[in-house]
Every structure is written in structure tokens, then in C-alpha cells.
Amino acid sequence: MAVDDPEEVDAGLTVDRVLSAPDEESVPIVSDRALPEILFDHVEEHGDDVALRWKRYGVWQEYSWTEYYDRVERFALGLEEYGFGEEDVLFTIGYNRPHQLWAWMAAQSLGGMAAPNYEDMLPEDIGKQLRLLEPQVAYAEDQEMVDKLLLVASDVPSLETIVYRDEKGMFRYEEGDPPLPRDGVEVPDDIDIVAYADVEERGRQRLESGAVADDYLHERVQAVDPDATAMLAPTSGTTGMPKRVKLTHFNFINLANAAIDIDPLPEESDYFSYLPMAWVGEQMILIAAAFVGGWTANFPEEPETEAEDLREIGPEIIFSSPNRYEEWVADVKAKVENTTPLKRFVYETAMSIGRKYADYVVGDRADEEPPATLRAAHWLSYWVAYRPILDKIGLKRAKNVYTGGGPLGEDHFSFYHALGVPLKQIWGQSEVCGFVTMHRDDDVQVDTVGEVFPNVEVGITPEGELLVRGPVVTSGYYGMPEKTESAIEDGWLHTDDFGAITDEGHVKIFDRMDDVLELSDGTAVAPISVETKLKFNPYVREALVVGDGQESLSAVLNIRFDNVAEWADQRDIQYAGYQDLTQKPPVLELMREVVAETNEELDNPIERFVILFKEFDADDGELTRTGKIRREVVVDRYRRLVDGLFAGDEEIEMGVTITYQDGRETEERGRMTVVDVDEPVETDDGEEVVVDG
User: Across the strands, what pairs with 331?
Assistant: First the structure.
């Protein structure tokens, strides 16, 4: 670790401290390679090794590195027939499939760039991205996504070709002009709609006919500038329309080299790809870390089979968002609560041992060795209790386990280490290929996001904003020079994250700069730290903590419906759907006890809360596509509710507009009871509700 004094930092920007990687970590900078070149290296060195797996009709299909390159080559040569070339943008939207990955690599091999998008985006949002990117060719997974593109295509004159992968339902596009996906929508008659297989076939014919030389694509790849943009990754969009971050081959390769130097794994180690491919962390692993490390990427059959497919593979490498780790904990806790007394006793005994063991790994005693008796008890607990749990989740073979995209609560972190899972926190954002800091094996501190990657520096301003510079930092935003100018200053990237640098050389993240609350007495509160504590409970799915300018905190909660519904069913509580269940007095009392228990860990407790009559939803603009709350949007949307919490209202009624994935809208109203945490919930007859666990 190296910390520079302020006077050693570039003039023009006040930086209090600068933190770099630990002194013993040194990774050479690579400046003469493009991503497709590494793919070709694998073909030459170990072309028969398994590069990809994709489950189809219940069977895992394997693709070697040679087959991987062949699919990229055929699609690239076919794509070129549709006018795609250097510096062009390939717009992609689809599920986790090898085909989308092949399409990315094909675009990059031709000197172009890929612009992935979340599969559940609304047509309106797709239209905004198309107008920003102005692509000539778009890749769409299936009929639904083709229809979404066609709904907005008339406003995008650049779009000429849509390539679809899944042929199911696409027969109606085969003859003449396609019918209207929706009444009143004009579909441009100059757009070609072609099958992925047909594009590949055109590429194959070019090769077999001798229209291009056998080494044509390889020569194109060797001519790709490493400083050229490889991906246009979308930002999370917490404050508005997602921007497009220009990430180069140079950015990706140097980050991958640093990551693998810290956490090496053998070639053909398994990675399971199920996070949205538009998320920059998924891109970093699929097109960089997996390339450099020679890992095998595995793709599920369908989104609905992810859990089963993950368990079958049991990958060594797991990278997931905090939401997924929170869901796994909630599921485990809910199943334990509803199992037999004997199994519950075994679990609770094993977890008591695990918590003691985790205290020596990530807790207050991390600088001590656990006693031999505790190590033995933890080993026995692993085989009796932890391993069956990890097997059901899919983590029993996991060696490199990471969480990123947002902070994971300390309680969740300790839970996984109690099970023997070596979970580490990663901090980064789209502008830095996803990774800036990471815990090291022998230094996992649950209240930090780890140490800085080699060749990267993290600075901090007097106001507490974290800055980043180094080979991972973007050159700017595509088509938004004014945003680029405000984000990058004196070579430093403004992250907008409020944090700190510890004396041990770790980075702490408190919250986004704009999201930190200030109570009326001047106390600063990072709401996300409170929200993650609430979500450690298996009955809380999402939480919004509010209180800026107020004397105390309040909260708006979403219940985890499946778990609460099962809890209610066991107590013979009748309800008619999500909204009705949220306002049942026993459920309100259950959640009151949850909040009261959380308050015991807070310096600034939550005094009042409501359970929202609907779940926060990305389609309604309340969450980003990665599951983060768009705090400013949500507070404005539910202003009547937030004001009522602090005005002393006992009940609040309001309505909101609900948006479906196909763009349809409807109005939904709900009446919500405001719960005072210090007062037990009463029935309509004035009797206190009793919750028996």
C-alpha cells in the first residue's frame, strides 16, 4: 500500500489522500493486445479445451475454443455483409446466451463495438438508447425483443438490420412486410429481419467460396487498436437515462490481468453466467477474465431454470449482485423456520459454531488463529449442515466468490463466511470496467470494500468523494461530451461515491454522495447501510429509508412475498394477494418486530414505517435494471407517503401508475397503515396482535 500526500497530486483538484495497491503486488501494463487476439491465442494453444457450455433441452452442449472462434468468425463475416465495419455499434438485447457473446466478439473483431442492453427494458427506453447510439445493426434474442425494437424503429433512421436468435414465433416475418406488433405502429419497410443462423451461413459461404482468405478475420483482429472502444456499457441509471461508457480493449485486459494475479484459478475453472449481460461486471468476466484465465463460461437453459442449472454446474467462480446473496439468505432462513424441530436444532447449532468461526475470519478476532477445537467443530458442521445448504444454492465448489454492484450488509457477509464461503466485496462502476477494489484472501474486512487493484489509484476529496485513475478508467461517455467533461478532472474519475480510506489501506463506501441523509440535528446517515440491515431479515425484500431534514428516520418496506405468504399460511391468515397481505395486522406486527430488532443495531433508529401496497419495480422507474433503488425518483413518486410518515398520519391512501413490460399502463391504489415501531399493532377491536415467531 502506498499513500501519497496532497501536494504530490495533480494541481487543479484537491485530493486529500491517494491510495494504491499493496506494495508486493506488481502487474505489468499490457498495451499491445485486443480482446479477440486472446481468443485466437487460446485456439492455437489449447483449442480443444472447453470454452463454453450452454444447456439445451436438458443437455449441456460444450464448445471448445476452436468452435468458439469458428462461430465468431462466421458471424463476423456475415455481419460484414450487412455493412458492419470499423467503429460501428452493434446494439444487442437478449438473455445469457453464447450467441450474444459471439456477436460481441464478432463486432470487436471487425473494429466495432458492442452495446448490450437489459432484456426487460421497455420500448420507450430502448428507443432512447437507439437514438443515442445510432446503430445500423441490432441483435435481438427472440420475437418479443424484435417487436420492442420495431415499436421504436421508425424514430431510428440508422437501423437497417435486426438479427434474431430464437426462431420461435418468427415465421410471421418471413414473407413480405412484417405485420404490426401492435395496432397503430408503423414498421419501416426498409428494415431487414434476419435469423442469426442465416448471418452465420453467409459468413460460412464467404469462407468456403474463397471470397475471403482463411486468415482474413485474424488479420482484421491484428489490426484492431487496443485503445479502440470494445464495449459501450450502460451505467445503472440511478439518476436518469443510463449513459454509455466507452471501455477499450486496453481497459478490459489490464483489469483482467490484475484480477487474475490476485485470485488465480486453473484453466477450465467454471463460471456461471446468469447476471444480465448488460451489467459491466458480467462483461468484464465473460470477455476479459475468462479469456485471460482460460475459464469455462456456462449459460443456463432459460431464466426460469437458473437455480437448477447453477446447482448442476457448481462453479468455482461466483460473481453476483447483493440482491442475489440477500435472496439466498432469505430462502435459507425461511426454509429453516419451516423445517422439522430436529433439523432446525442442527442448523442453529451449526450456525452458532459458524458465527464464532467467522469472527476469526472477518470479525473482531480476524488477527487471531481460531482454536483447534473450533476448527474441528466447524469442519464437522460443514459436512453435517453447511454443505447441504451450499449444494442447494450451487456454491459447494465455489472458491472465488464475489459480490459487486452495491454494498452487501455486514450481517450477510458474516453469514456466508460462517458457512465457509470465502465471499469478498468488489467495488467499482461501469466507468472502470466494474472493478477498482477487492478484498484479499488474508484480509477480508466486512465494513470495507477491500484494497485497490494493481496499477489503479483511489483518491479522496475533502468532501469525502472517492476518485479513481489508472488503466481501467473510461475515456468518457459515448455521444455525451458534456457528461465526460464533468466526470473526469485532471485525469481523475469522479465516482460520486461517499467513502473513506482507512489506515490499513482499505476503502470504505458509505453511500452515493447525493443519497446521504442529514437529520435536523446535523447527523449524517447513509440510508443504504440501514436498508441492508433490514434486508438481512428473510421477510424484507426491499427498503427505502427516508428522513432528510427530519428529527428521525422512517422507512417504506416491501415484503418478501413468498416467505411472508408461507408464514401467513401456517397461521391460517386469509389474504387476497400481495396488497391485502401487506396490511394484515399480524403481518404489520411481524414487520414491526423486524424493524425493532434492527433498531437495536442503529445509532439512529427508525420510528415509523409503512409496507407499500406494491413492490418497487424497474418497469415503473423505481429500480435500476440491476435492482438498485432510484432514490430521488422513488421519493418524488411517493411524496404523499413520505410526507405522511413525518406528519403523524395513521393511515395513508394513494395511487400510482403501474407500467408493464409491453408498455401498457394502469392505475393502482392502496391504503396503508402507518406503524409506530414502539407501539404494538392492534386489531380493529383494539387488542394487541401477538406474533408467535
Answer: none
Q: Is residue 256 part of a domain?
A: no
What CA–CA distance (Å, rounded) separates 102 from 83? 18
101 and 174 together in one domain? yes
At 181, which CATH number?
3.40.50.980
pLDDT of residue 356: 96
Residue 105 has a pLDDT of 97
Q: By three-state DSSP, how is residue 664 classified?
A: coil
The yes-or-no verdict on residue 9 having pLDDT over 80 is no
| Pair 190, 94 in one domain | yes
Q: Would 546 be classed as within a structural domain?
A: yes
Residues 6+ apart with CB under 8 A from 117: 91, 92, 93, 126, 129, 234, 278
Same domain, 383 and 520: no
Does a structural domain hold residue 398? yes
Query: pLDDT of 512-558, one tens digit each?
Result: 888 889 999 999 898 988 998 999 899 999 999 999 999 999 999 99
Contacts of residue 653, defined as CB under 8 A and 6 or more positions apart, other chains included, come to 669, 670, 671, 672
Residues in the chain, how many? 693
Q: What is the CATH number of the domain that holds 14?
A: 2.30.38.10
What is the predicted pLDDT for the residue at 7? 39
- Would you list the DSSP string of 613-651? SS---GGGTSB-TTS-B-HHHHHHHTHHHHHHHHHT-SE
Backbone angles phi, psi at 405, to 5 degrees: 90, 0
Of 210, 222, 279, 267, nearest in space to 249 by CA = 222
Query: Is residue 11 scored above 70 in pLDDT?
Result: no
- Are both 502 and 567 inside the same structural domain? no
Mean local confidence (pLDDT), 169-191: 62
pLDDT in tens, 281-320: 999 999 999 999 999 999 999 989 999 999 999 999 999 9
- Do 138 and 209 sit in the same domain of this protein? yes
Q: Which of 135, 145, 18 is closest to 452 using CA atoms?
A: 18
Specify the CATH number for the domain of residue 645. Answer: 3.30.300.30
Q: Percent of the chain, pLDDT > 70?
A: 95
Please tell me the predicted confidence (pLDDT) of residue 688.
Answer: 76
Place of cell 465473460: 286
Tell whether the torsion through CA atoms of 449, 455, 460 and 461 is positive or negative. Answer: negative
Taking the C-alpha atoms of residue 8 and residue 144, their distance in angstroms, rounded to an integer, is: 55
Q: Is 327 helix (H, G, I), strand (E, B) or coil?
A: helix
- Mean pLDDT of all residues belonging to the chain: 91
Q: Residue 279: pLDDT above 50?
A: yes
Q: How many domains does the chain have?
A: 3
Residue 317 lies in a domain: yes
Tell me the C-alpha to C-alpha distance, in Å, between residue 682 and each of 335, 587, 678, 679, 690.
29, 11, 12, 9, 9
Residues spanned by the domain of 335: 3-28+303-513
d(CA 302, CA 573): 35
**In angstroms, what CA-CA distances link 508 with 6, 460, 511?**
19, 11, 10
* Claim: this prediction has a pTM higher than 0.85: yes
CB-based contact 601:295 (threshold 8 Å): no
Q: Which among 198, 225, 252 is the end of a domain?
A: 225
Average pLDDT of the segment spanning 250-256: 96
Q: Is 455 helix (H, G, I), strand (E, B) or coil?
A: coil
Assess whether 198 and 155 both reside in one domain: yes
